[in-house]
Design a protein that fits this description.
The chain has four helices and six strands; from the N terminus they run ββαβαβαββα. With 191 residues, it is an alpha/beta fold. The longest helix has 15 residues. The chain starts with 33 loop residues before the first strand and ends in a 17-residue tail after the last helix. 51% of the residues are buried.
């Protein structure tokens, strides 16, 4: 969640791994099960929702829907006053089995650096699940995993758009996600 350098207690995030379909995000609205409280030392957490704070109201239906599906969901709307929000976000981001990253016109823009940073951390752990709420392409470096579209999604849990997201989250949380090729860095091995 990016707030342009100052934290306005941004909304939740939780990127989850998805299959690659194209370089374009298909709009997706966030939903979640039950919110997990603020500062915690080692939370049991299914989903972390990463988003631009200005998009918070757009993500509330996604968080609610995911929670209704039984997932534990955390987003920065759960940060309590007096909490070190940097530590709280890092703790929950690292604990989540699935990180849903909401790509929107705002989060892919110049001021979306917090969202990109959270997405990068989720990618390193294979916990990244991109969703698009607008007709946008994920930023460079984030388009290799297919983004699920929640564009025009109105919060209906039986909508195929949400069903696809819930299924991807379920697979990620259960450890049955689609295997991704590992990017090899370094010198090739010669036999």
């Amino acid at each position: 969640v990016d707030d342009g350098g100052r934290r306005n207690l941004p909304v939740g995030y939780a990127p989850i791994a998805a299959a690659r379909l194209s370089n374009h995000c298909v709009p997706l609205m966030p939903v979640s099960r039950r919110a997990v409280g603020g500062a915690m030392k080692s939370p049991e957490l299914d989903v972390f929702v990463s988003y631009k704070s200005e998009d918070r109201t757009r993500l509330k239906p996604l968080v609610a829907a995911l929670e209704a599906e039984g997932f534990t969901v955390w987003w920065d709307a759960h940060i309590d006053g007096g909490t070190n929000w940097h530590e709280d976000i890092a703790t929950h981001l690292d604990a989540a089995k699935c990180v849903i990253v909401a790509w929107t016109k705002l989060s892919v823009g110049h001021d979306g650096h917090f969202v990109r940073d959270e997405a990068r951390r989720a990618q390193r752990r294979d916990a990244y699940l991109p969703v698009c709420l607008d007709q946008v392409e994920p930023p460079l470096g984030f388009g290799e995993i297919q983004a699920l579209s929640l564009k025009s999604w109105k919060g209906n849990r039986s909508d195929p758009k949400f069903v696809a997201v819930a299924s991807a989250v379920r697979n990620q949380v259960s450890g049955e996600r689609i295997a991704r090729p590992h990017i090899h860095s370094g010198e090739p091995k010669i036999s």
